[in-house]
Amino acid sequence: MGYDHAAPKRRVNMTLNEDLVEQARGLTSNLSETVELLLAKFVAEGGDAAASKQRRIEQHIAASNAFVAQHGGWADEFSTL
């Protein structure tokens, strides 16, 4: 999926645990860049998870359709149509 690395930056307002922010500042010289990289990873993994879920849904639908095509639907015997 990716994102536009050249997109303009903008300020955002967030509420974060103060102690956690201070500890993070001790680990990085650029907290904004670090958060941006972590956010990019989070978005990429979320997109991958969503795509994986969609593939599983499509596989299930295909398997269900194949079963019904071969064996008929479980409620066919009750149909009045």
Question: What does the secondary structure layout of this molecule look like, with pairings?
Answer:
Blueprint: H1 18-27, H2 31-71
In short:
By secondary structure, this protein is an all-alpha fold.
Description of the molecule:
This protein has 81 residues and is mostly helical. The protein has one domain (18-78). 63% of the residues lie in helices and 0% in strands. The longest helix has 41 residues, at 31-71. It is elongated, with a radius of gyration of 24 Å.
Cα end-to-end separation = 47 Å
**H/E element string?**
HH
Total number of helices: 2
Helix/strand class: mainly alpha
List low-pLDDT spans: none
Task: State the helicity in percent bands.
Answer: 55-70%
Sketch the major β-sheet. none
Structural Rg: 24 Å
Beta-strand percent range: under 5%
The overall average pLDDT, rounded, is 90
Coarse morphology: elongated
Tally of DSSP β-strands:
0
Number of domains: 1
